[in-house]
Amino acid sequence: MDRLTLRVPPDLIRRFDAAAASSGGRARLLRRLMEAAAQAPFPDAPATPPARLAAKLGLRLTLADMVALEREAALRGQSRTQWTVALIRARLYGRPQLSRGEAIAFLEVQRELRRIGVNINQIARALNTAVMEGGVLDLEVAKLDAYAREIRAHLVGVRDAFAGNLSYWAPDP
To answer: Residues of 54-78 as b/e, b for ≥16 C-beta within 10 angstroms?
Structure first.
């Protein structure tokens, strides 16, 4: 018979033990949950095995360090492993490490810049193909100037966000 080992937070194991007490214990409840989850047909083996990490790093931390690590990771919406990997990559490569929320925010900025670019292209096309009176032309040029200011503001925001992200991962002086 195969053996399954996993690590869970103390709070979760206490709650699981309470639920398992009326079901005959941990092992019996786990077997029942696994059998229920495994009712789907057995999948075919993949043609190529999944890529494995080349190396694994283990750390031993004091309880205080682990609590601080879990708090920092939770503040960014990451697991402690995700947070630790992001810290290492930020230090090794000097590139921003985005949490899920930050990545979504950057995608929104990208969408906004794309929308502004479409508007600028439409205005440029209209300016190239139409003969406009002075007042209409001045209005279109003013729109272009407003879009240019908006793009510059977004770019400053993106630059500041990346700088803030890198500052977060940098060691304290």
So the answer is: eeeeeeeeeeeeeeebeeebeebeb
